[in-house]
Amino acid sequence: MSENNAIKRQMTLYLVFAAVMIGLNYLIQKLNQLVIAPFICQTYGTIEFFHIFYCSTETFKMPELIGSIFAVGITYIIKFFLDKFIVFKKTGTELKETSIEFIKYFGFAIITTIENIGIQFLLTNFLNTPLEISFIIALTIGYLTKFWLDRKWVFLKKT
After folding, report:
1. pLDDT above 80 (res 109)
2. Domain hosting residue 105, numbered range
3. I need a surface site. Which of 20, 36, 44, 95 has the fewest CB within 10 A?
4. What's the distance, CA 118 to chain centroid?
5. 126 and 57, same domain (yes or no)
6. In the listed set 89, 121, 150, which residue is the last one of a domain according to the structure?
7. What is the dihedral of CA 100, 104, 106, 107, to 10 degrees?
């Protein structure tokens, strides 16, 4: 397979997995909102710890925040392994190598998240772009940037 075709294949898989993770993230958050949070708050809501850190809606909507954190964490870990083993076809499973890749992957995720938020903010606030369009543009640019960073700096090919 030529280098150009390999890059196209990697990019396609990367973006498909990104779209699937966005869907899974949404599903996890809805599941938390409709099933998990009501169950936990009804069953354990009288326990102060659960009431304060999970069931409270004063100041912050804690069930939504916790659900979002779980959704991002779960999808982030799944996407890391999909990217490592399927997109970039890395075969190394040594803890040290995988840990270094994971730390770099996480760092670039933070950078591209800031990029996404910035692009969406600029499009929505200065160009009056509808939220849905600015969201799609920002995510697309962010994921393309993340693809190139991951390809060049995270999942390095051994020479």
Report:
1. yes
2. 93-159
3. 95
4. 17
5. no
6. 89
7. 140
The count of structural domains within the chain is: 2
Residue range 117-142, pLDDT digits in tens: 899 999 988 999 988 898 889 988 99
pLDDT value of position 20: 95
Distance between CA 78 and CA 152 in Å, rounded?
20
For 8-67, write each residue's pLDDT tens digit.
999 999 999 999 999 999 999 999 999 999 999 999 999 999 998 889 888 778 888 888
| Residues above pLDDT 90, as percent of the chain | 69
Q: State both tokens at 106.
A: 């996480």
Q: Is residue 35 packed enough to be buried (19+ CB in 10 Å), middle (13-18) or exposed (0-12)? A: exposed
Helices assigned H by DSSP within 1-130: 3-31, 37-44, 48-50, 62-82, 95-126
